[in-house]
Amino acid sequence: MVWSDITTENIDPGDVLARVGRPGDGAVAFFAGVVRNENQGRPVSGMEYEGYDEMAGKELAAIVGEAAERAGGGRVAAVHRLGRLAVGEVSVAIAVSAPHRAEAFDAARYVIEEIKKRLPVWKREHYLDRDAEWLEGHLPAAEAK
Amino acid sequence: MVWSDITTENIDPGDVLARVGRPGDGAVAFFAGVVRNENQGRPVSGMEYEGYDEMAGKELAAIVGEAAERAGGGRVAAVHRLGRLAVGEVSVAIAVSAPHRAEAFDAARYVIEEIKKRLPVWKREHYLDRDAEWLEGHLPAAEAK
Amino acid sequence: MDVTVLLFAAHRELAGGKANTVVTLPERSTVDGLLAELRARGGGWASLPRRAAVAVNRSYANGDTVLSEGDEVALIPPVAGG
Amino acid sequence: MDVTVLLFAAHRELAGGKANTVVTLPERSTVDGLLAELRARGGGWASLPRRAAVAVNRSYANGDTVLSEGDEVALIPPVAGG
Fold first, then answer.
1. Fewer Cβ atoms within 10 A, N terminus or C terminus of chain A?
2. What one-character DSSP code corresponds to residue D44?
3. What is the ipTM of this complex?
4. How far apart are CA B51 and CA B57, in angstroms?
């Protein structure tokens, strides 16, 4: 079982956790990314996430499918939020259940690392003391010259 | 901030998650151990956790303190349940928040690995098709001859 | 043939705020050919980063990927999700 | 001097179901001395696993830890929490 979504709604970690788990699974791993109140010493007032919506949905689905396979057929759920988020709000949440803990941790970690590498999403940090800025990101591996 | 508990009550992952997180933390990692419905092919009806209660509380507190230090002063919460648990019930839950994801994952992983190595807790698996059995465990490092 | 070019985030600002634009290209143009064409427009387009990932019809593609009429070509700035 | 020995899980069953027992030992006995004394009792005690961790007053201790009057000595079977 895999589930993924790109949303502009508030993310509830409990809802994401509730999507995984089955009688043969002994381990549940979860990760959430949260908007911080500072970045490299600059006070932050919020974060604006822009996405290439349709491709982001397809790419996130591919990532959770790969993660489920790595977790030996474990259950994987992931959701990424777009739009303007306040400090403390959840931007991404990932839940994995698997028979054993190593698989669950590895799959959850895989999903967040792949999101950072390949999900077509960008973020613009809003500061208390200066203008907003697009943050430096990772160039996806498939690269035109 | 650290929090830990040994309990005979049902564990609610949302309660444990709610104990971590602060404005400077961008990452939340969570792990839950769940009673499986089988072990090495044998159908399991439940698990009975016995603990050396007072020492388990002290040892779990030490583990979460070590984890918080590893996570650069991150917040760490962990709870272990004792008593008779049904399949699907949560035996242990760990939540960590930290500025960045590597620290949060590492600290959560540290807590569960140390629990398995040193928490004075034992489990007796109850089977559908035969008598219950104490499971093989790990000998804590400080060892008498 | 015509392809639709999508721009996002910092790229969009470089190109004067446009989110997408239709570009007419010779048949069998490649992704690299399209990028050269865009940069040749000058202005903000000239400063489109030399390093850019490209997705054709919502899948990552290479510079030598051949384009077809109606393709949706997205220039993907370095991604920063999570 | 008297120390209280706590037994858990499989150990408790080896020792006839007793969760704790008071043992009288010579002054300055060690943890290893206590274990030898227990095994010498025969019956289930004789089969207490050769490899056992020991906690004295709720902290892990070594075989050569010296015991004192009133100590709480727990024999810790291989642990299996989580």
1. C
2. G
3. 0.91
4. 9
Q: Which residue from A99, D14, A101 is spatially nearest to B44, judged by alpha carbons?
A: A99
- What is residue B86's three-state secondary structure? strand
**Does the beta-carbon distance from C79 to A140 stay under 8 Å?**
yes
* Domains in chain D, number: 1
From the list B52, B92, B116, the residue facing D74 with the nearest CB is B52
Give the pLDDT of chain B (145 residues) as one tens digit per residue: 999 999 999 999 999 999 999 989 999 999 999 999 998 889 999 999 999 999 999 999 999 999 999 998 889 999 999 999 999 999 999 999 999 999 999 999 999 999 999 999 999 999 988 889 999 888 887 544 3
Question: Domain range holding C44?
Answer: 2-76
Alpha carbon distances (Å) from A117 to A85, A140, B17, B87, C58: 21, 6, 27, 37, 16
Domain CATH for C35? 3.10.20.30
The answer to the question of residue C6 being in a domain is yes
Extract the tokens encoding B102: 């590597």
Chain A CB contacts of B31 below 8 Å: 27-30, 101, 104-105
**Residue labelled with tokens 């054993």:** A100
For chain A, which domains are there?
Answer: 2-134 (3.90.1170.40)
The whole-model pTM stands at 0.93
Q: Note whether residue D81 is domain-resident.
A: no
Determine, yes or no, domain membership for C63: yes
